[in-house]
Specification:
By secondary structure, the chain is of the alpha/beta class. The chain is built from 15 helices and 15 strands. The protein folds into three domains: 172 residues, P-loop containing nucleotide triphosphate hydrolases (Rossmann fold); 176 residues, Rossmann fold (3-Layer(aba) Sandwich); 80 residues, K homology (KH) domain (GMP Synthetase, Chain A, domain 3), CATH 3.30.300. Bound molecules: guanosine-5'-diphosphate (GDP) (2 copies).
Length: 445
């Protein structure tokens, strides 16, 4: 199952020290990475790494926060604050070719005060000669775990990962306990600040019987609420701060993004909450994009409908227009204040979860494919071979993943690919969830 709750190793560091090169190198080395984003062209800001039988998520903190990306890239202090708050291990990357004074002393001070394990990676030490003296120089900073590495040629990375894996192994065990406690369908309530996430969460939890909360036996801060609705167990994931109001406000937007990422990762289906009496902003769209990129089921909740005075059909159109990529997702007009619409929204979760987990057999897919090709055959692209489509298979569930066997992926137009992707959702009933369609080339040349 991709519903992983993994320890988080946060990469922090100044721009240009090689953070993303390191992330790519480590994830590239890992042939067994089970990232849902594998094979897509999106920028990778995180990757699931299995090393010495320990699995953790490596995150480039400078790139992860969709809400404050530009700001974070250039603000090491913020990255470090987030990492101290949220990560299980902090991996500070510096340019090892520079002298130790180039490493910000106030950052080192900050990191020394935290109890979180931390590692200093001295990057860009491509040749073995430079290592020894650099180590001695940086040891004077008082940091114990210094690893000279080269993200370009891979030197030293294995030793560093050995250490990292050992450090996060304990968290990994605790997370497994959390995961066991995560019963039934995992639901995250996601949205920018003030749209009404905690109000909705509280309204749901108040109405329904909370079965277990909090999770015993771990030191984790997450306190999930487990509910049972008509015999179906659900785990509503507590995005830290949903309930702890002051903490949340102190954190403002910057922190929210990272927490949001963690909640989305653990969810099967997310409630995407927007405020129906405010304009939809880029921030709403970025949050939506993040759920979509992580390939989770999505239900749109236009909240505060008790305050909305306009035409409700127009409101629906307005929302749909701003989230065109969520055309397959249901929308409900709700109120966290008086509970309006929430029952219907809750009822929509299970069917989406079921679609995400179903497996369509090859026979049905084959009939589907020939019908589609007959109706709308793939067009010949300029400078490409004649496109040929052979077969369609479902290779995974939750998220539903399909493989289209063709002669050459390059010969297949984006339109045709989109057409098949959208038709899978419509004709084979995968409403409410993004699906993944991979093209696989049969011919070698
Ligand atoms: P980021 O801004 O910290 O994510 O840095 P990037 O990963 O974008 O790297 C910045 C530049 O440093 C790029 O030109 C990389 O090719 C280069 N770089 C990264 N790692 C190494 C390394 O280990 N050795 C050398 N020589 N160059 C590196
Ligand atoms: P969060 O930051 O997304 O968790 O938002 P909150 O749940 O804290 O809500 C932000 C503000 O909107 C608070 O003042 C809530 O009382 C108010 N609010 C939330 N949902 C509703 C709603 O459905 N109707 C009305 N009238 N107010 C709401």
């Amino acid at each position: 199952m991709s519903k992983s709750i993994l320890p988080i190793v946060a990469i922090v560091g100044q721009p240009n020290v090689g953070k993303s090169t390191l992330l790519n190198k480590v994830s590239g080395k890992q042939m067994a990475v089970t990232s849902p984003l594998a094979g897509t062209t999106r920028d990778r800001q995180y990757s699931d790494i299995s090393w010495n039988e320990v699995t953790f998520t490596l995150v480039d903190t400078a790139g992860i926060n969709p809400l404050a990306k530009d700001e974070l890239e250039h603000n090491l202090h913020k990255q470090v604050d987030i990492a101290i708050e949220e990560a299980d291990l902090i991996l500070l990357v510096a340019d090892g070719r520079l002298n130790r004074l180039s490493v910000d002393q106030s950052i080192i001070q900050k990191l020394r005060r935290t109890k979180k394990p931390m590692v200093l990676a001295l990057n860009k030490l491509d040749s073995s000669k430079a290592w020894e003296e650099k180590l001695a120089e940086f040891a004077a900073l008082g940091i114990k775990n210094v690893f000279p590495i080269s993200s370009i040629n891979g030197r030293g990375i294995g030793d560093m990962l050995d250490f990292v894996a050992k450090q996060v192994a304990k968290t990994s065990e605790e997370e497994a306990v959390l995961e066991e406690n995560q019963n039934g369908i995992a639901v995250g309530i996601i949205g920018k600040p003030n749209v009404g996430k905690s109000s909705i969460f509280n309204a749901i939890v108040k109405e329904e019987r909370v079965v277990v909360s909090p999770v015993p036996g771990t030191t984790r801060t997450a306190i999930d609420s487990q509910l049972e609705i008509e015999g179906q167990p659900y785990t509503f994931i507590d995005t830290a701060g949903l309930k702890k109001k002051t903490y949340r406000q102190a954190q403002a937007d910057t922190y929210g993004g990272f927490q949001t990422f963690k909640t989305i990762r653990r969810s099967d289906v997310c409630f995407l909450v927007i405020d129906s009496i405010e304009e939809i902003t880029k921030q709403d769209q970025r949050v939506a994009q993040e759920i979509f990129s992580l390939e989770k089921g999505i239900i749109i909740l236009a909240n505060k409908i008790d305050l909305f005075r306009g035409d409700k059909e127009k409101l629906r159109d307005y929302v749909s227009m701003h989230f065109p990529f969520l055309w397959m997702c249901p929308m409900f007009l709700v109120s966290g204040k008086n509970g309006e619409g929430l029952e219907e929204a809750l009822a929509a979760i299970k069917p989406i979860f079921e679609s995400r987990n179903k497996q369509v057999d090859n026979q049905a897919l084959s009939e589907f494919l020939s019908k589609k090709i007959k109706h709308n055959p793939p067009k010949l692209l300029r400078d490409q071979k004649k496109p040929k489509v052979f077969s369609l298979h479902q290779v995974n569930a939750n998220p539903p993943t399909f493989e289209l066997l063709v002669n050459h992926p390059a010969a297949i137009s984006q339109q045709f690919r989109k057409y098949i992707e959208n038709s899978i959702i419509k004709d084979l009933d995968f409403w409410g969830t993004p699906i993944i369609l991979k093209l696989k080339g049969k011919d070698k040349t």
